[in-house]
Amino acid sequence: MEKNAINPWNWQDQRNYVQAVEVKNVSGTLYCSGQTAIDENGISSKADMGTQLQLAIQNLEHLIDTSGYECKNIVRLNVYHTDTTAFFEHFHFLQEWVVKHGIKQATTVMEVKTLFETLTVELEATVVK
């Protein structure tokens, strides 16, 4: 597999994403459903945004790993949250995880009115190998 980040500008580099990702010679693509702060028993978290973001990251990473893919090969990451101010107070958790895995992904971050039950953040990814 060959991945190429496409960035006509430089400003996105400090935000840890790319404008586009070209992928060639893929042997598999994993489309992940939105991962949230739901535990192994299916119970939605009632914790604050920061805690929920960390749990959603852990759940996404677990899904990717158990599927035989690697986080470094995430090419698309969509982030849905219910409160822009609260999300960006804890955004560093997501940034640190992206840097840790060397992920170069196209990203959309969007505030939505509500998510399932008590959830405040959801991560949706596409991964290749």
> Helical percent range?
25-40%
- Report the oligomer: single chain
Largest sheet: 4 strands, mixed
Query: Looking at the structure, what is the overall shape?
Result: globular
Count the beta strands: 6
**Strand/helix succession:** EEEHEHHEE
User: What is the typical, i.e. mean, pLDDT?
Assistant: 96
Distance between the termini: 6 Å
Written account of the structure:
α1 (49-66) runs parallel beside α3. It contains three helices and six strands; from the N terminus they run βββαβααββ. It has a four-stranded mixed β-sheet with strand order 3-6-4-5, covered by helices on one side. The N and C termini lie close together (6 Å). It has 129 residues and is of the alpha+beta class.
Layout: helices, strands, pairs:
Layout: E1 2-6, E2 20-24, E3 29-31, H1 49-66, E4 74-81, H2 84-89, H3 91-101, E5 106-111, E6 121-128
Parallel strand pairs: 4-5
Antiparallel strand pairs: 1-2, 3-6, 4-6
Keywords:
single chain, 129 residues, alpha+beta, 4-stranded mixed β-sheet, two-stranded antiparallel sheet, 3 helices, 27% strand, globular
Give a summary of the structure in a few sentences.
This protein is of the alpha+beta class and 129 residues long.
